[in-house]
Amino acid sequence: MVEITRDVVIVGAGAAGLTAANELRKAGLSVAVLEARDRVGGRLWTDVIDGAMLEIGGQWVSPDQDALIDTVAELGLETFSRYREGDNVYVGPDGVAHRFTGEMFPVSPETERVIAEVTERLDRMVSEIDPDRPWEHPDAAEWDAITWDAWLREQTDDDEAVRNLAFATGSAMLTKPTHTFSLLQSLLMAASAGSYSNLVDADFILDKRVVGGLQQVPLLLAERLGDDVHLNQPVRTIEWGDGGVTATTDDLTVRARFAILAHAPVLYNRISFVPALPRRQHQLHQHLSMGFVIKVHAVYETPFWRDKGLSGTAFSPYELSHEAYDNSNHGDERGTLVGFVSDANADGVFELSADERKERILESLSHYYGEEAKNPIVYYESDWGSEEWTRGAYAASFDMGGLHRYGPDLRAAVGPIHFACSDMAGAGYQHVDGAIRMGRLAAASIVEASRS
């Protein structure tokens, strides 16, 4: 057993942990980053599959994500805009593909009116929410006691309007059925992007990508840390008290003054804490769970949809793949589509054989793009639900009532133990931007504590 001593031990080499480590090093503190996987990046993972570079994890950069934008620029990385020229596609309850441009789906005038009215109502509510403290809103308890689906159905009996309004925070972001999380959790999701309108605007929220893949951010951050990043080191035990912390893996012990847990909160129970964490933390962690989404990558000889005048952007609350986009790589003559299958639909397709699942998903994509979509030269499914050190996607969210009840404790340090990950961010919640923000915040708290 190798023993080392550092000022801070950081568990998790994703964007949050590596950002925190670099900030701490700049402040003159020594660090050790312990990562369970054999790679850095956490939920960022760029890989080459059958000759095609695929963004298996997170990938997009939106204009409001200042922390990520600044980090990308500081690391010398370049970005490029997602392809969006041409018509979008919407499949309605009639099963017919309708081409459209602009922000509003091609629905009936009455459904369009309802969607616009409820969106305006949601934007007003979101404007009152502090994404760092949503539980402080005067109506937070009430909003956390009603499901997102039930609240929408109180606003209108137009089912198509409800499905389209629910989509942005349900299938698309929290990746849970809309009856399983609260209105308050949905409002937080929207507030993290600045407004509900921002969240439903694909041209805003899915604006740019990083040339060469977003995993370069953690890779370059890790390079700066050198031998202070230790891979294949799942932490088994953390002993903590007034004197600091001792983190133990199978073959490494790190003694430190402080610790940062910089991984998904659903993994806290993989670590034995001595003494045990306070009861409040135990309760809190039981009310957080990951969503579930399959990210589907389909690569073609050419981006054939562009020849049809299509942007590649497609939506439908009635399709197995509820949204899809042109995800072609910068400078690549091939065309790549990325589609998403989430929540209960993801449950269902994993009951099928791999071949039947692929057939069903490609059939759904063909409803947007035509028969050519059924014949990719590369096909790959990002299944984060099977990842031992993640267990779902994109991030953790609270069950009914949990955000108001436990939210104030989510980031609160426990003695020398601090917490940082995208799952607990306000601005940038569930995104790399939020992970960077939380890494900076945890580092700043420790720097302050170390000087007191």
From TrEMBL:
SUPFAM superfamilies: FAD-linked reductases, C-terminal domain, FAD/NAD(P)-binding domain. Substrate binds at residue 340. This is Putrescine oxidase. One of its GO terms (molecular function) is putrescine oxidase activity. Residues 16-446 form the Amine oxidase domain. Belongs to the flavin monoamine oxidase family. Its EC number is 1.4.3.10. FAD binds at residues 35-36, 235. Its cofactor is FAD. Keywords: Oxidoreductase.
